[in-house]
Amino acid sequence: MLINKASDWGPKPFKMLRCWKEIEGYHAFVRNKLKEIQVEGWGGYILKEKLKRIKKDLMEWHKFHSSNLGERIQNTKEKLNSLDMKFQEIVPNENDIEERLEVIASLHKMSELESSIMWQKARLKWMKEGDANVIHCIDKERVLLEEVKDIKEEIFSHFQNQYRWRIQTGPRMDNQVFKQVSEEEGELLIKNFSEEEIKKVVWDCDSEKSPGPDGISLGFIKIFGKS
C-alpha cells in the first residue's frame, strides 16, 4: 500500500489530517467545492463521485497550507524575536502589541499544524516498520518469499483457493422444526433503513477511526454530510 525506495506496494493511499479542520477557511473551502461538483444519478453514486473528486482539491489545498512550513515557522520566529528586540528599545504602542499577538497566534497555528503532520507521518512509519502485523515476508513450503511481487501473488493465490467454488454435500435439515418469526417481524427484517438510523450509526462511530479505502474519515462525513 505504501511506496518506498526498496519496495513498491502500489499507489500511496489518500490520508486526511486531523489538523485540517482547525485551519481557517477549511470548512468554507470544502463546502464550496462540494457545491461546485455537479453529479447526476442516484444518491450513492453522487456521494461516491463527490468524495472521489474532492480528494484532489484537498491535496492541493493541503500543499498550499503546508508547503515550506518549516521555513515559514522559522521566519515567524525571527519576526517575533525582532519585535521583542525592538520593544527593549522603545515603549510599544497598541498597534505594536497587537502585531506581536498576531505573530504569536500565527506561530502557534503553524507549529500545531507541523506537529500534527509529523505525528501522522510517525504513525505511518510505525505501521510500516514497527508493527508486527505488517507483512515483510512469507514462508511458502519452507521457502522465504521477500519480494513484493512474490508476496502479492502468494496472498492472491491463497485467498483464491480459499474462496474457490467447490461442490460439497452439506448437512441436511430434513424433519427439523425451527422457530419462525411472525409476519410483522419478517417485515421489520426487510424494511429499508431510515435516514435517522443510518445517521445514528455514523454519528456513534469515532470521527477519526477506520477510514474507508478512499481515506475519507467519518468525521468528514459528519461535518459535510449535507453539503
From TrEMBL:
<keyword id="KW-0269">Exonuclease</keyword>
<dbReference type="GO" id="GO:0004519">
    <property type="term" value="F:endonuclease activity"/>
</dbReference>
<keyword id="KW-0540">Nuclease</keyword>
<keyword id="KW-0378">Hydrolase</keyword>
<keyword id="KW-0255">Endonuclease</keyword>
<dbReference type="GO" id="GO:0004527">
    <property type="term" value="F:exonuclease activity"/>
</dbReference>
<protein>
    <submittedName>
        <fullName>Endonuclease/exonuclease/phosphatase family protein</fullName>
    </submittedName>
</protein>
